[in-house]
Amino acid sequence: MQILFLIAVVLGLMLIGFRFGRLRSVRVTGGDARQLHSLPTYYGLYVALWCGLPALLLLAAWMALEPTIIRMIVLDSLPPDLLLQPDGQTINDARLSLLLTDIRNIASGNIASQSEPAVIAAAGRYASLLQVSFGAMVVVVLSVAMGGAAAAYRFIAPQFRARNRVENIIKMMMVACSLVAILTTLGIILSLLFETLRFFTEVPVTEFLFGTNWSPQTAMRSDQVGSSGAFGAVPLFAGTMMIAMIAMTVAVPIGLLAAIYMAEYAPRNVRTVVKPLLEILAGIPTVVYGFFAALTVAPLIRETGGLLGLSVSSESALAAGLVMGIMIIPFVSSLSDDVITAVPQSMREGSYGLGATRSETIKRVIFPAALPGIVGGVLLAVSRAIGETMIVVMAAGLAANLTANPLEAVTTVTVQIVTLLVGDQEFDSAKTLAAFALGLLLFTVTLVLNVIALHVVRKYREQYE
Amino acid sequence: MATVDETMDTRSAQAARAAQAGRSQIAETVNAGLGRRYRSERRFRAYGVLAIVLALSMLATLFVTIISKGYTAFWQNSLNFEVALPADVIDPQGTRDPKVLASANYLGLVRDALQAQFPEVDSRQERRALFAMLSDSAPYDLQDAVLDNPGAIGGTIKVRVSLDDDFDMLAKGHINADLPQDQRRLTDVQVAWFQSLEQRGMVEAHFNTALFTNGDSRQAESAGILGAVVGSLFVVAVTLALSFPIGVATAVYLEEFAPKNRFTDLIEVNINNLAAVPSIVFGLLGLAVFLQFFGLPRSAPLVGGLVLTLMTLPTIIIASRAALKSVPPSIREAALGLGASKLQMILHHVLPLAMPGMLTGTIIGMAQALGESAPLLMIGMVAFVVDIPNGPLDPATVLPVQIFLWADSPERAFVERTSAAIMVLLAFLVFMNAAAVWLRKRFERRW
Description:
The complex is a heterodimer.
Chain A: H1 2-28, H2 40-77, H3 93-107, H4 117-155, H5 162-202, H6 205-210, E1 214-218, E2 228-231, H7 234-265, H8 268-283, H9 286-307, H10 317-341, H11 345-353, H12 358-387, H13 390-395, H14 413-421, H15 430-464
Antiparallel strand pairs in A: 1-2
Helix pairs in contact in A: 1-2, 1-4, 2-4, 2-5, 3-4, 5-15, 7-10, 7-12, 8-10, 9-10, 10-12, 11-12, 12-15, 14-15
Chain B: H1 2-70, E1 75-84, H2 87-90, H3 98-102, H4 106-117, H5 124-131, H6 138-148, E2 156-162, H7 165-171, H8 188-199, E3 203-207, H9 210-213, H10 226-257, H11 262-274, H12 279-293, H13 301-325, H14 329-337, H15 342-371, H16 374-378, H17 399-407, H18 412-443
Antiparallel strand pairs in B: 1-2, 1-3
C-alpha cells in the first residue's frame, strides 16, 4: 500500500512537471507559441517523462533487489551457531528458509515457531532494515524524480527539439515492450534448462529418457520402504501419447467432416449459426471439461464397460481422451475450414465440369489439395492435446502405468508436473527438479510440432496465393 | 473425285455412328453408375451432418449435465424456528454490551431449541445424531440475529439457522430416502426427524446468498465463491493493466516502425511460438522466475497476473496487429501529408481507428486468462483460502481453481456447488465474449 502511495506521488509529480514544462515553453517565447520548435504539450511531456521514468525504473529495481540484499545482511549478522546443526554441520536450505520465515514472522508481529533471543534480535534487525530501506527508497526515488524534472525543465528553450526527444523516448519504450516476448522465451528456456541440468546431476539422462519405472517419491529416511525414487519417464510418454491419440481419433474425423460440410455444403444461414456454436466448445475453460470428464464421462464409461463385462478403471485413459477430443474438435474444424476455403474455386469448377459429384470433388480434388494444411492443423491440435493439463489432472490417473489398454488408468507428463509441484515442496530435491525436466521435454516437443506445423501451413498457403 | 467424296462420306458417317455408339455406351456406363454415385454423395453429406450433430450434442450434453447438477445450488434449505433466549444465559448482568452478547453460548441455545422439538430424544448417541442436523455455522446465525435484535433477549426469537449440507441434500432429493440406511449418509432416524420438521413447516428454502457472499469453507453449506471471484478480479486486473499496454505497444512497433531485419523476425517467431506453448510451461516459468528468483509471495494474485500476462500477450499482439493492418494506408498518408510526425499519425489517427479491433482481441485474451487454471496451480494459487483477499499481494485463489478444488470433494453438496461455480464462470465468459462481439459489430468499419 505504501508503495502504491509512493507511485501515486511520482505520478502526481509527473503531472505537475507536465504543467510547468508547458507553461515554461510558452513563457520562454514571450507567449508566442509559433516560435517554438514543437507544440507546448511536448515540452510538458518531456519534463514529465524525465520526472517519472527514471524514478519508476529505480523503484522497480529497488523492490526487486531489496529482499535479497536484506536477507544477505540478516544472515551475515546471525550468530554462527544458529547456522549449525547440533552435530556441527551447516544447516540445509529448508532449515534456513524456515529460520528466515521465523525472523520475518516475528518482525511483522506474527506467531513464529521459535523464540530464541538470537532470532528475536535478528527479527529486530530485519524490521529496522526494512524501515531504513523504505525510508531510503522514498528519499532516493523522490529526489530522482525531482532532479530529472528540474534538469529537463532547464533544457526548455524555443529551439529545443522536444517532439523528437519525446518521440524517441516513446519509441524506445515500444522496443522495450516488444522485447518482452523474447525475454519470456529466454526465461522459459533458461529456467527450464537450469533446473533440468541440476536434475541430471542427480539422475542420469538415460534413466530419465529410457527408464520404464516412474515413482518420484524419494525416501525421507533411509529406512523407509517403497520410496526408491525412480525417474524413468517412458510410462509418462506412453500415457500422454495414448490419451492424445484417443483425443485425435475423436477430434479429427468429427472436426474434419464438420469443416468439410460447413465449407462445401452448408447454406449460409446454417454456417452462421453452427460455426459460433462450435467455437463455444473452444471457449469453455478446461477445468470445466475436467469436471465433466471426471464426474460424468468416466462413470458412464465404467458402467457401460461393466455391462459389457469389462473392468474399466474409474480414471480410464478413455474418459480423459474422449473429453479432450471434444475440446479439440473446434480447433481441428476451424483450421481445416480455413484451409478448405483457401483451395481456389477454379479447381472445384474444373472438377464439376468433368462431371464429378460434389463428394467426388471433395474427396479427389479438394482434400488432396488441402491435405498439407490439414496435416499442419492436426499437428497443432496434437501439440494442444499433449500440453493440455486440467482435463488429465482431474480425469486421468496418478500412478505411472505402462499399458496399451485404454480402459486402464495412465498418467501423463502434465499430470506429473502438477502433482510434483503442487503442495509442499522443497527446491533442490530430485522430485521437484524432475518436474522441470518434464516441462523442458513438453516445451521442446510442442515447439517442434508447432514449428513443423507452421512451416507446412505456410508452404501450403504460398502454393495458392 | 466423287468416289473419294463418297468414301469420305461413308467414313465420316461410320465414324459418327461409331461415336454415337460409343457415346451411348459411355452414357450407359455413366447412367449405370449414377445411382451408386448419388448414394455415396448422400452418404458423404450425411457424414458431415452427423459430425456436426455429434459435436453440438456433446456441447449440449455438457451444458445439460452441468446445469442439471448445479441449478439446485442456487437455493438452500435452512431451519426456521423459535429459539428461546433466556436472559441469564446470554446476558446475566443485563448490560446489553455487544461484547457480552457475542460471547454467549449460542451453540447450546440452538441445540436446546432443536432438542425441544424432539423431547423423546435423550440418549447421548441420539442427541449427537440429532445435532448433526445443524451446520457448524448455525450458532453464528443465531448470534447475528440476537445482535441485530437485542430486545428479544428474555423471550424467544424466530431465527433461520443453517442446516448441515447432508440434510440440505435430503431436502433437495439428492439423497434417496428409500435406499437402505447403510447406502446413504443419513440414518433412518435422522431422515424421520427431518421429515417431521418439514411437515411442521420449519424447513425453509431460500436463495443461497452464502454461495455469493462467503469465501471457501470445509463445510459445503457455508462455502462460497466470493473469495475466488475477488481473486479472479485481481488477477485479471493485473493481467489487463500489464498486457494491454505492452501488447499494443509491441503491435504498434512491429507493424509501424520495425525495420525488416533479423531482430524483428526473431521477435515475430517468438510471439508465434509463445502462442502455442502449453500454459503449464508458463506456470513453471512463474515458479522459477517470479517466486524463486524475485522472491514474490506465493499464492498472490500479482504473480498470477504476471504469469497470465505473459500467456495472453501473444493473443493481444496478434489481434492488435491485425487491427492495425486493416487501417487503410490512405489515412496514414493523409496525416503525413498534413505534416503530422509518424508518431502523431499513429497516435491521433491509426490507433483510434484500430482500437475496437485491439479491444476485441484484449477481451478475448482476458476471457482466456479468466478461465485458465493450470499455470496458477504451479504458483501456489491452490491454497485453501477462507478470507476474501484485500489486495493483489494477499493469498488468494481464482474461480477456475476453486472449481478444481471443489471438484475433488466427494460430498454431493460440493458437486452441486462446483456446477454452480462453473455456471458463474461461464456467465462471466459469455458476458465477455458477447462484449467482444458487440464491440466488433458496433465499431467494425469496412473501408
